[in-house]
Every structure is written in C-alpha cells, then in structure tokens.
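User: quick one, sequence for these tokens?
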C-alpha cells in the first residue's frame, strides 16, 4: 500500500511530476465532492423563525467550497466555508451560526430599538463527520492508483 510521501518522492525522481500531480489533484477533488453539498444542505436546514428572512443562510451556503493543495511534501484537501466571500460586515457570521464564536446580538430585522440574541446552530461538523473515513480511503486509493501507474511506466 502506497503512502502519499512515497508517491511524491517517486514523482520527483521520475520527472513526470506534472501529469501525475494533476491525476492526484483530480482524485482528491473527486473525494471532496460529497462534502460541499452536504454542508450547504446543513446550513440551509438550520432553523429559521418568524415570517421574514434575510437570506443569511443562502449567503453562507454559497461560500462553501472544497480545495486541494499539493506543494512539495504537503498534500492537503478540505472543505470550508470561505467567509471572505461574505458581504462586508458579515464575514464572521458563518462562525457565529456554527457556534465557533459566542452567540451574537443584532438588531431584529434592522430595527435598532430591538436587539436579538441569536442562538448558534452547529452545522459543519455534523455534516462532514460521517465522511471522515471515506475521505481517508479515497486519498489512499488515489495514492495506490498513481503508484501503480508509475510502476507500470517504470516497468
């Protein structure tokens, strides 16, 4: 069974680094596919009360993205809510909604005379926890496939 470190070292020695790195990136992106829709659905399904809604959950769901980084020995893949894509003044709201930051207070529908303490609704960990082992297995499959392709080229 190949490890990513072994595979990366073999890539450097072989000179076919770019093609196989692209393959590894493609496999890692594929392993990330189930995460983003699951996180978006969890965000959109957090409870909302009252007759009026501001669209906050939709804005946060649009910020979900997956990523893959391969730099030297570093191989990393993940899913995140990229708060930098939120409108100005709302960049901390994904963390508040998930409960990573303390509950926050805000004017009730813009009425500065009425302030509301917003409860958090953790969404992120619950949405991805069941995929943890699958992600690791997908990475291992990608490393094995690339190593097999490398061995076939070398042999």
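Assistant:
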């Amino acid at each position: 069974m190949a490890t990513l470190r072994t595979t990366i070292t073999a890539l450097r020695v072989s000179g076919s680094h770019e093609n196989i790195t692209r393959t590894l990136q493609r496999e890692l992106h594929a392993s990330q596919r189930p995460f983003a829709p699951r996180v978006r659905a969890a965000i959109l399904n957090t409870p909302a009360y009252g007759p009026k809604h501001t669209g906050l959950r939709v804005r946060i769901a649009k910020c979900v993205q997956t990523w893959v980084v391969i730099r030297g020995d570093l191989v990393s893949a993940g899913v995140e809510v990229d708060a930098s894509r939120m409108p100005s003044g709302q960049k901390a709201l994904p963390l508040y909604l998930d409960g990573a930051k303390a509950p926050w207070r805000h004017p009730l529908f813009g009425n500065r005379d009425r302030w509301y303490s917003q409860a958090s609704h953790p969404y992120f960990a619950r949405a991805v926890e069941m995929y943890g082992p699958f992600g690791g297995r997908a990475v291992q499959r990608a490393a094995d496939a690339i190593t097999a392709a490398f061995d076939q080229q070398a042999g």
